[in-house]
Amino acid sequence: MPHDAEHVPWPAEDVVRYRDAGCWTGQTFGQSLAERAAAHGDRCAVRDQDRRLTYAELDTAASSLATGLRALGIAPSDRVLLHLQNSVEFVEVLFALFRLGAIPVMGLPAHRHAEMAANAAATEAVAVIVPSHGAGYDFVGLAQRVRRETPSVRHVITVGPGTAKTDAGEDLFLTPGSLPGPSAGAIALLQLSGGSTGIPKLIPRTHDDYLYSVRRSAEICRLDASAVYFAALPAAHNFTLSSPGILGTLWAGGTVALSRDPSPSAAFSFIRETGTTITGLVPPLARLWVETAERLADPDIGSLRVLQIGGARCPDELAARVTPALGATVQQVFGMAEGLVCYTRLDDEAEVLTTTQGRPMSEFDEMLVVDEFDREVPPGEPGRLLTRGPYTIRGYYRNEAANRRSFTENGWYRTGDIVRVRPDGNLSVVGRSGDFINRAGEKVSPEELEGQLRGHPSVKDLLAVGMTDPALGERTCVFVVLSEADAKPTLGELRAFGRERGLADWKLPDELRIVPDFPKTGVGKASRKALREELRG
Ligand code: J2J
């Protein structure tokens, strides 16, 4: 059976427009790194608690590992599933794949069997790359299981400080050979969308479009060679990777500092040790940092100039406390792995910084705010945000069914977010029109969770709904109708069941309500909306 499209291209006239305007430059990430290494090879590019690499060393490592992967039989445009924690190795592997033209699939360290198996199958990945040791979880064991179960997966590759090996123990750092490298229009990586059900929604980002978003982000955040970006959230997440994140910092010639521990005490000392100038957090973590700093007379993190907050709506009250507590400018970032990223600008007035999620980064970003029938709402009214632009995808990877739901015929991406655009162009996010629960910036698909938990013997039927939570933004509540024969399950049992089914921890329910039946919609379907309203009281 033929596959659905890997990459829905932009229309030819837009391609010309984006090229002519200089958005798409024809450069790949591999070339961009080589350029930086030639210009200032001895500057520190990337570091973690264990080691640091200069631009020249990172460049050589990427070529050397790319050569080893090629020798192993991994070819340009093959998919390679990453399951790595924040480390220098993450960056080496990423650039090795960029240089080779193989396509990294950006798995998150919290992913477990359910996500890894689905992503490996959907992409027909040929290899899984995991940490070799000291990671607090058996990444290697999980990858081996995925390989046994997934016909396309031939290799489990383990990486550690300065090492990359096949499971036969062969070293993959080879003397760099010549590699043709991909074209800039090729897919650079596959990002993951929150809210996927059965078939994952994978987001194909090209070198051209992703590098544009990264460059523009770096400009907006005024990154230069003195920038030290602290990757505190998972490196593979679109925010950490590209807004401007790891890739924007490397583009600007700065230093990326990666850590696995974003808790305030560890993070504050990491900031001091590395001279961090900018980092990005989800709102619940930002709150922890702010509260901790408020308790300390002086958090002693004077190098920090910008604290970005994104992934979920930042409460205005929290945004207003950032500068007094941490001494850094707050920057709100409203983005999505599918493309569009909005930023408040560093010199915006305090009112904009603390009450809005900013405005699009590119003059070529298009936005429409519509009602449920796709009719534009009057200016300033809340509505559903649709977007198109030079770095917003036109379709998911091999997933026509999702494309029909998430894109209009004219190529607009349906963000699912409800926004209000102010006369000054800044927008505020006022809600969502469904599909996922935003739990502390991590996205939970109710359908995916329901599908897994319905297998529990005590469950006759089940619906998952997001409820407002003061710390997390939203938490996940499951409503259960019991099967006749069985005893009442506890929340703990349902969580354990979900974990056994291989779900990532953040997707497990936070709350359980047992109900005799579900409220029904007009057409007799169980109504998630009515349950949501019930939770609101
Ligand atoms: C409200 N909702 C937000 C915000 C994201 C930068 C920053 C974040 C992401 C991200 C990203 C929000 N206020 N400030 O990719 O490059 C919700 C929206 C959005 C969804 C996208 C980036 N920032 N959101 O969070 O693909 O609902 O990307 O549609 O994980 O998160 O989620 P994701």
From TrEMBL:
Its EC number is 2.7.7.58. The keyword Membrane does not apply. It comes from Amycolatopsis alba DSM 44262. This is 2,3-dihydroxybenzoate-AMP ligase. GO terms for molecular function: acid-thiol ligase activity; nucleotidyltransferase activity. Keywords: Ligase, Nucleotidyltransferase, Transferase. Residues 34-397 form the AMP-dependent synthetase/ligase domain. PROSITE patterns: AMP_BINDING. PANTHER family: LONG-CHAIN-FATTY-ACID--COA LIGASE, NONRIBOSOMAL PEPTIDE SYNTHASE PES1 (EUROFUNG)-RELATED. InterPro entries: AMP-bd_C (IPR025110), AMP-bd_C_sf (IPR045851), AMP-binding_CS (IPR020845), AMP-dep_synth/lig_dom (IPR000873), ATP-dep_AMP-bd_enzyme (IPR050237). The gene is entE. It comes from the Bacteria. SUPFAM superfamilies: Acetyl-CoA synthetase-like. Residues 448-525 form the AMP-binding enzyme C-terminal domain. It is an enzyme of class 2 (transferase).
